Amino acid sequence: MTWRIALAALLVMAAGEPHSGYQDASPETRAMQDDDASNPGFLWVQQGETLWNQRTGGDGRSCADCHGAAPVAMRGVATRYPLFDARLGRPITLTQRIEQCRVERQGASPLSPDSDALLGLTAYVGLQSRGLPLQVATDGPVRLYYEAGKALFDAREGQLNLACAQCHDDLAGQRLAGAIIPQGHPNGYPEYRLEWQGMGSLERRIRNCMVGVRAEPFAADALELVELELYLGARANGLTIETPAVRP
Amino acid sequence: MVRVLLNVPKRVKRDEPFDVKLLISHPMESGQRRDDMGQPIPRDIINSFVCTFDDEEVLRADLFPAIAANPFLSFAVTVQASGTLAMTFVDDHGTVQTETASITVE
Question: Which residues of chain A neighbour B7 with C-beta distances below 8 Å?
Answer without folding.
Answer: 37
